[in-house]
Write a structure and sequence with these properties.
Blueprint: H1 2-9, H2 17-32, H3 39-69, H4 82-114, E1 117-120, H5 128-142, E2 149-151, E3 165-173, E4 180-186, E5 194-197, E6 205-209, H6 210-216, E7 225-237, H7 251-262, E8 267-273, H8 278-288, E9 295-298, H9 306-311, H10 338-344, E10 347-351, H11 357-368, E11 372-379, H12 387-397, E12 401-406, H13 414-427, E13 430-432, E14 439-440, E15 443-451, E16 454-462, E17 474-481, H14 484-498, E18 510-512, H15 516-532, E19 538-543, H16 549-560, E20 564-569, E21 586-591, E22 596-597, E23 600-604, E24 611-615, H17 621-625, E25 627-634, H18 637-652, E26 657-660, E27 666-668, H19 679-708
Parallel strand pairs: 1-6, 8-9, 11-12, 12-13, 14-25, 17-22, 19-20, 20-21
Antiparallel strand pairs: 2-4, 3-4, 3-7, 5-6, 7-8, 10-17, 11-15, 15-16, 16-17, 18-25, 19-23, 21-26, 23-24, 24-25, 26-27
Helix pairs in contact: 2-3, 2-4, 3-4, 11-12, 12-13, 15-16, 18-19
Length: 713
């Protein structure tokens, strides 16, 4: 038995987390290379790979560099030390960047030109008329905003902000001194990076990037110098700050301090134009303390996230996917208020196929309902103009007890959340800033309402954030219920978050970091035992990431016992699938589509009595051990069928799904001779059909009511 266990936990049977993430970014990049996808959607996918890579370097690569500096020798899940991981990451990332730019230059640019949109790579490509326009634009709009910076004995090398785009130059005094000096100017982010050129021939639109406009006119910034060379460059800094929460007197104040430091952390990566003057590169390398493996010489425009702005250009709708309008939820398509509808039975929400409006309306109606006594909610990431936050503030203003947990440690949303926390406090809400040492990642809202038969608790539980903007882009599920046992658990959750009250037992909910891991392990082992006893066993699970060693080891054991395990994992997967004697009964599907797959759903066969759960947690150590997460059951039989249907359709997807191979690569399914299934498209069609059918039912109901209504006196 011990030998078998060693097979399940042997590092060679695991994939490094960071390399798996890079594989995910390759899958996104493949979408930008797929000519079957509308051209502007391909631009968007390429832009996403660039922004993903920025965050990966600032956080994951930075964290590994910190480990190397600290001489940390412990190996990861795949048996690799931090320095070994960095070497493999560097090699794979350089290949990824090369592929990004070959996709941009060789595939997307020619295709755009065919469609009448030309992106000029260099200012030398401008016509004479365009040169006049660009020079005029520089003098009138750009020049007043710029701050040229020279470096000499009295002016030290400037501090360069994280992710800012800059132009570095070697300059020489016109007075005759042949000494080369360094100078630079930051490309201002307050101006549009895309500059559209006028006077093009009919049917053609040409654009140039702002850095090229500045580079063309850089001599105007250094009038007493000759410009020897000038090249755009960009840096990534370590943004993975650490908080000593026990020492922090004021968590909010400490995070604000750390946010400022994020702009000036260690340089992790330098991007610079491929044809850079080597003398200039040598200066940057020395001043920024960058190693060769962290320098990326780019054959194209730096920072491809500008393609997302290009996607927003008007006049190219025919090159984009048709915009989908989220549909109403059938159970709420009537004249009754949301509380009456929830009392009729649990309501399943499936975003963005169904609108996020019911979640907003749930809080908004609660804020205005005179019978509502209290509203409690967790907020992890919210939108810039959040209607939910506005409703919570209104509720406090209306005299209700409002408690909000705002997680200040939500990475890259810290500043936004600090602003919301302050506004909610000013409005009279009781604001909690999360728990010490843990991130509160669960998505739960509790409304306490006074009714004829006593106090009733209404609860919304979700797999995604209370963010009305991302709810149009991320696939998530939610449940609205007034089940008394879930209501009791919800109260216990908020008492635990706001004070020191920990319930002796839970009715329906399972929480991390104390109970959720053991719950998952217990359910996986139950399927394993059932398979060994010849009973029905099957696991279907959908999540963003799988990298928890204990979970994976138990899945391997379940597979070897004969349990069929079907996983839908968007991003990181440290498990090896389809390996003989280890995981031949495990398949892993990764769907990359127009919407970002974000829901977490878990289904366990349980010998013919399936148990279905949804929640906020992935199968990752951070979710199971270092965050407050909630797993909630779906018990209504019709809703349970709908959730299982979601999993089954995703597993049948043969258009957007990539299948994990035993060697760790991902391949798309051979579609020849098969009926095409695109899960996201099918869910859109099903949501439209369900809403349409409900609308017809309502129409018939209204007609019948009028037909049999008593005549007026």
């Amino acid at each position: 038995m011990a030998e078998t266990e060693n097979v399940y936990t042997d590092p060679k049977n695991y994939v490094n987390r960071e390399l798996s993430w890079l594989e995910f970014n390759y899958r996104i990049l493949n979408e930008s290379r797929d000519k079957a996808i509308p051209l502007f959607e391909r631009l968007k996918f390429l832009s996403i790979t660039a922004s993903n890579l920025d965050e990966f370097c600032m956080v994951r690569v930075a964290s590994l560099k910190d480990q190397v500096h600290a001489k940390y020798k412990k190996t990861d899940i795949a048996g690799l030390r931090a320095d070994e991981q960095l070497a493999l990451i560097s090699e794979k990332t350089h290949r990824l960047v090369d592929l990004q730019y070959s996709t941009y230059s060789r595939s997307l640019l020619p295709a755009l030109k065919q469609q009448g949109l030309e992106i000029l790579w260099e200012h030398e490509e401008l016509t004479e008329k365009e040169q006049q326009y660009v020079d005029g634009y520089f003098r009138e709009t750009v020049y007043p905003v710029l701050t040229p910076m020279a470096v000499d004995s009295s002016r030290p090398f400037p501090l360069i902000r994280n992710k800012s785009l800059n132009i570095a130059a070697l300059v020489q005094k016109k007075s005759g001194d042949d000494t080369l000096e360094f100078a630079m100017v930051q490309v201002p982010s307050v101006l549009p990076r895309i500059v559209e050129l006028p006077n093009c021939e009919e049917g053609v639109r040409r654009i140039i990037l702002l850095e090229e406009v500045i580079e063309r006119n850089i001599h105007e910034l250094f009038l007493n110098y000759n410009i020897v060379s000038a090249h755009p460059f960009r840096i990534m800094r370590n943004a993975d700050f650490m908080l000593d929460e026990e020492e922090a007197v004021d968590l909010l104040e400490e995070i604000q301090k750390q946010l400022k430091k994020r702009q000036w952390g260690e340089v992790i990566r330098l991007e610079i134009e491929e044809k850079v003057d080597k003398r200039l590169l040598k200066i940057l390398k020395k001043e920024l303390s960058v190693e060769n493996e962290d320098i990326y010489e780019i054959s194209g425009p730096l920072d491809l996230t500008f393609l997302m702005k290009l996607y927003g250009m008007g006049g190219f709708d025919h090159l984009k996917s048709k915009t989908y309008v989220p549909q109403p939820v059938p159970a709420l398509m009537n004249e009754e208020d949301i509380f009456t509808n929830i009392r009729k039975g649990d309501i399943l929400l499936h975003h963005p196929y169904q609108t996020f409006d019911p979640v907003v309306n749930f809080v908004r109606q609660a804020s205005r309902d005179p019978e509502v006594l209290a509203i409690k909610q967790t907020l992890y990431r919210v939108s810039g103009h959040s209607p939910i936050v506005a409703a919570l503030a209104e509720a406090a203003d209306n005299g209700k007890q409002v408690s909000v947990l705002v997680e200040l440690k939500a990475r890259f949303d810290e500043e936004n959340n600090i602003n919301w926390a302050k506004k909610l406090e000013k409005a009279g809400c009781h604001v909690i800033y999360g728990l010490m040492g843990l991130k509160t990642h669960c998505k739960i809202t509790l409304v306490v309402r006074r009714e004829e038969d006593g106090i009733r608790r209404y609860v919304h539980l979700g797999t995604g954030n209370y963010n009305d903007s991302t709810a149009r882009l991320y696939t998530d599920c939610g449940l609205m219920t007034c089940n008394p046992k879930i209501g009791q658990d919800a109260t216990a959750v908020f008492n635990m978050l706001s004070g020191y009250s920990e319930p002796p037992a839970w009715n329906k909910l399972s929480l991390a970091p104390l109970w959720l891991r053991s719950k998952f392990i217990k359910m996986i082992r139950r399927e394993t035992a059932n398979a060994r006893e010849g009973k029905r066993s099957h696991i279907m699970a959908k999540m963003n990431s799988l990298c928890d060693k204990e979970i994976i080891a138990n899945l391997y054991e379940a597979s070897c016992a004969g349990v069929k395990i079907e996983l839908v994992i968007r991003g990181i997967c440290c498990l090896k699938a389809g390996v003989a004697g280890l995981s031949e009964n495990i398949s892993v599907h990764s769907i990359v589509g127009n919407f970002l797959e974000h829901a977490r759903i878990f289904c366990f066969e349980n010998d013919g009595s399936p148990e279905v759960y949804m929640g906020s947690a992935d199968w990752m150590p951070r979710n199971l051990d270092k965050r407050v997460e909630i797993l909630f059951p779906v018990e209504d039989e019709s809703l349970k069928e709908q959730v299982i249907h979601i999993l089954q359709v995703q597993l049948e997807d043969n258009v957007k799904a990539h299948i994990l191979q035993p060697d760790g690569t991902y391949e798309k399914i051979d579609k020849r001779g098969k009926e095409l299934v695109t899960a996201q498209l099918q869910f859109c069609e099903e949501a439209i059909a369900a809403a349409s059918a409900r609308k017809q039912e309502e129409s018939v109901d209204v007609h019948e009511t009028r037909r049999f209504a008593p005549a007026e006196a």
